[in-house]
Amino acid sequence: MQTSLPEAFTATGEGRRAEAILRSCVHCGFCNATCPTYQLLGDELDGPRGRIYLIKDMLEQERVDPVAVQHLDRCLTCRSCETTCPSGVAYGELVEIGRNYQEARQPRGLIERLQRRWLLSVVPYPRVFARWAALGRLAGPFLPRRLRKQLPARPVRRPPPEEVANPVRIVLLLDGCAQRLSTPEVNDSLVELLAALGIRTLRVPEAGCCGALALHLGAASQARTAMASVLDSLSAHLEEVDAVISTASGCGVTLKDYGRLLADERESAAQAAAFADKVMDVGELLASLDARWRRALPVERIAVHVPCTLQHGQRRGDLPAKLLEQAGYSLVPVADGHLCCGSAGSYAVLQPELAERLGENKVAALTNGEPELIVTANVGCQVHLGALTKVPVRHWIELLAPEPG
Amino acid sequence: MTDRSDALTEAVQNARTAGQRVLIMGSGSKRFLTRADTDPGDRILSTEEHTGIEDYRKDELVVTVRSGTPLRTLRQVLGREGQMLAFEPPEFQGLGTVGGAVAAGLPGPGRPWRGSVRDSVLGVEMINGYGERLVFGGQVMKNVAGFDVSRLQSGAFGIFGVLLRVSLKVIPVPQTERSCVLALDREAAHQWMIRMSALPVPITAACWLDGQLHVRLSGAEPAVVRAARHVGGEQSADDGFWTALRDQTLPFFRSIGVACRYVPPAAALLDTDELIDWNGARRWTQRSPDQVPAGYRRFGPGYARDRCRDAGGNRAVAEYQHRLKQAFDPDSLFNAELTDADVAA
Amino acid sequence: MSEPRQQPGTGQPDLEERGAARTRKRALKRLQSLLPEHCLLTRPAALKPYETDGLTAIRERPWVVALPETEAMLAGVIQICREEGIAVVPRGAGTGLSGGARPLADGVLLGLSKLDRILEIDLSNRAARVQPGVRNLAISEAVAEHGLYYAPDPSSQIACSIGGNVAENSGGVHCLKYGLTVHNILGLTVLTFAGDRLEIGGPGNDPECLDLLALYCGSEGLLGVVTEVWVRLLPVPPERRVLLGAFPAVAGAADAVAAIIRSGLVPAGLEMMDRLAVQAAEAFVHAGYPSDAEAVLLCELDGVAEEVAADARLVERVFRDFGASAVQTAETTEEQARLWLGRKAAFPAVGRLAPDYYCMDGTIPRARLAEVLARVSVLSERYGLAVANVFHAGDGNLHPLILYDANRPGELEQAEAFGAEILDLCVAVGGTVTGEHGVGVEKLGPMCGQFSEAELNQFFRLKAAFDPRGLLNPGKAIPTLTRCAEVGGMHVHGGRLPFPNLERF
What we know:
The complex is a heterotrimer of chains A (405), B (345) and C (505). Chain A has 24 helices and 10 strands. With 405 residues, chain A is α/β, with parallel strands linked by helices. In chain A, α2 (13-24) crosses α8, α5 (48-61) runs antiparallel to α6 and α5 (48-61) packs across α8. The relative contact order of chain A is 0.10. Chain B has 2 domains: 5-173 and 306-338, Uridine Diphospho-n-acetylenolpyruvylglucosamine Reductase, domain 3; 176-298. In chain B, 29% of the residues lie in helices and 25% in strands. Chain B has 12 helices and 16 strands. In chain B, a hairpin with a 4-residue loop joins β3 and β4 (62-66). By secondary structure, chain C is of the alpha+beta class. Chain C has helices spanning 13-34, 44-47, 71-84, 136-143, 162-168, 175-178, 181-184, 212-216, 250-262, 275-285, 305-321, 333-344, 346-349, 369-383, 411-428, 444-450, 453-466, 481-487, and strands spanning 40-41, 64-66, 88-91, 108-111, 118-122, 127-130, 148-149, 185-191, 197-201, 225-232, 234-235, 239-247, 269-274, 295-303, 326-330, 356-359, 387-392, 397-404. The chains are: A alpha/beta (405), B alpha+beta (345), C alpha+beta (505). Chains in contact: A-C, B-C. At the B-C interface, β3, β7, α7, β8 and α9 of B face β9, α8, α9, α11 and α17 of C.
């Protein structure tokens, strides 16, 4: 597509990237077809092609219009469009540039500012989040139903298994931020699973949020701080581990991108790239093992919801179904598997109406085949869907057990 | 093999100058559908001598024919090359021209599978009511340049002008063809049609009459053989029934008169549906002209008029048909008996 | 015969401008009271992304965008615009490649994307009734569980809408055997600009009127706005097989196409891509397209197993006879889907080779394929612009994609001039300037070469029968005579000029 970005902007690294991405778009519109918000709203401005145009116009005019803010806010960053795009447009990266541009120039209203500041100062910090959650549980009866259901329950922790002697591999497992409170049992059970396979798991509680939340919200500097802090707390362990694992695909996709995200940081760029190379989704680790799987839970029919960050972000959406089938579960067909459930990081909080509509559609698609259980691969989706359906929602690795021998 | 384009154009121009209305006619084999009960006495403009196949590109599956060319001649030429017209136009009384076939827009027994007349029309050259010679469409399968005036001519019974040439898409004659006859009552036959239409079976015609369901299968030999086994019934390679159905030489059509209705194929049967054609989409009944049941159209005088002037009773559409006629033929030179209120029906 | 005016009003500019401003103000008020806020876009920033469709070289920001959610709202918009004398440009999914949905600065852009419901699936009549904004592919997806599908599959089928398909009479990679949109729809409901609601046809086979259904197909939104479409559904064939032939020369592939058709076989699809197009497609889908071939033919066969097997043997033999260096067969659904995905995504995938492309859509007699391609390649050298060729070889529909860079001054103009030469060539060999993308605004010039003054006037009278004031999608599809005089396009009617040896009819 033709562009005429101001020279001052194209002189920057971000500007050059923006121009290259914009020019790779040929405006064919295929992306709208798989965009969750376009499918709901039917407005060009709520599809990737329109947003690309809004960003282009904003960068060219050097003016942030409220229209552009509103419609970029509505983007889930699910990156379904990237999977669909034949021209290879790096949409996620462009939206990130667009959001950073907006946040740096356009003051939001007080309420929006407070909401975003609250999110950024609570969710990434487990201790703070825990306090708010406790408070929330107390205030439960006064909260709206939807919010109440999303509150993390009081965590139930399992004692860690004995440390694996003579491990075949050592992996570093990131506990993330929100996940630690909402679904700590996922990582606990992974540690047990890996131990049974002779893999030692290293956990570093001081490693906090990966920065994904801040990135989503266009808070560039806070994201950088978070990333630097993760690198800092893990640097001592990096040498000794074979891989860095996350069970939240939303974190995984960001961690894998550290190389690009920190490429401009003179000091940490190389370290970030080396780190990113070691990051694996838990599915990739399990699939790489020479293990045979059996069912860990006495259920038959399950529905798989593949998070966008796994299928569109990491392009490994095939893994959960593959391993679950190997374990002997029968997977019910799920229509529109490419569509986002509406959780999308902070989206469920900032765009509650759209998130709920997407969630309801997703639950309808997932439960159509009457599964006993729904599984997914990201904490956000798990909590969001869990609040919308009576069918239990679990992380898919909780359903796997290694066949002995 | 004469090109009478210039003479026909001149005739139209003269008629226009003289304010003389004309009736366009080929062999006259379908005159029984267009005739007003009282003859308006218009001058006949005959295309019968405007004959000849101008261009036949069998590799392109396209033939361009002058409108007066007998259907029979075209069928023979195509047949020699192993090709045919997909829409199987009728030859009433053994007659019929290519121009007439396109203008009448009457497809044969294969309609639901092989398409209508217009589905085979790729282009036309015509003379409009201004006496201008116009070319629309072309000789290629895909063409969206300008409005699709050429397909509009199919079924318009010449009210927009005189067809000079038409380019038609042709298809290869199927390798094998087989007919099966099953003894089934009407309801069972209809249900059979509905059921089969959802399955990938190479049926190219299905018709019920007098307790018998006739089914035609066409295509590659192994596919037809297998399908014939699946369909069952009494089998033959003879296509006599289908030709007789197409040309209306079956005894059924030689009665006091017939009327038909076009319906969704699965539409409920009426007692009056005595012959079911097109897999259920066209139903025939034997009735004298004054006793045509509601919902049916008499297949005789008035048939074309009903379509061209009254849009089968759809008033909103009829209004636009009238405006379209004006756009092509403002002085109502052509076939006025089909469109004008002042010509008695 | 005077030609109907395309734009309303000529007169004293000042007075008229003030009058027009007053009218627009009043119309806006009425539109605002008719439509909910999210269905009427008026802010310049919100209008900007609507300034173009799939052809980005042509842009104009609309006055407002209306996105009705119901047929009643749609009728209301048309009524207001009719009464206020404001032009309306209908738009489906905005994937068109001829600028057919290019807005007007003083007109309403009428987006149909919110009308996206499948209203009825009638299994016993194998038909479905859908709103115009329903995506082409969504229909097949909705009926897949019943073993049925909707046959026309334009390459943009994932995104394009059925209303747009009707407006353009879209084809696709399977129309060789299954036909175009006109062959696969059974009925239409249309709102004319005069406010009449026309119901034409339905799940039965034949409308009891003149063939307005065929007239509406490909009318590019000039004769009315489609509000409902009855589509025909077909049973999914029991067996499908896709053969891929890699050819060392384009001419060999072109001759193979003619030979297959001559053999009496009607493949479900027969497509060609040249080296550049193959490279682009392969980069997107990784389907194992041969990267060293000058041309690749894709041939899909469908039917019952025995038939498909026999046909496949024949096609393979023809491929080899005409010099194919390799023939692959995709038998599994996944392999086939991947090959087709590459083909269908070939246009936008070409975006990987250059920032912009200009897509042509001429159709020619199949027999002239090799000759026309050779000529295009000569032109490509002369203009210094690369061409990726993607086309429906089976029905002679060419899609040369001229690669250019819109950021380089003058290059778009060069691409356009190149494109115009290709289209003239198509008409000269007995073809047409557009096979399936429509004329839009892009091919108005080339239309002057294909139609005479009398024919263009007939088109105008036909348009006026439906829309006497010319307010529905004005300035599209049919060039004015003034325009034809300006471009100096020479009408080549009858093939007498400027290629006397070529026959058209």
